[in-house]
What we know:
By secondary structure, the protein is an alpha/beta fold. It contains 2 helices and 8 strands, in the order βαββββαβββ. The longest helix has 13 residues.
Amino acid sequence: MLHHLSFGVSDLARSEAFYDASLAPLGFVRVWGDETAIGYGRVGDEDKFAIKLVSAGLSIPGRGFHVAFAADSRGAVERFHAAALRHGGRDNGAPGLRPNYGPHYYAAFVLDPDGYQIEAVINDPV
């Protein structure tokens, strides 16, 4: 349904380091970039997620908004979480099963350096 999604960020270098590291375990890489924005997607594909420098007036969506990135394994969810915390993210839910979302829903939640709520998830039986 969605073609892509963009986040405004207050510090492109800080967000670049965070997203380069935290999206890599999920198989997402930088597919384009310039001095004001960076796009992420699968190797050889278009961006599905972008970060864009906002010099003033950055507004982070509140409660109820988050973005979930697909993971290929539970290990990838765990590596996403660890990388995010090492690169300026804040824990918002350690890796684990979330039975309230389904019997196989394995996810981790973090807040990025600007405070966006992001998740990595796999919803497959082991």
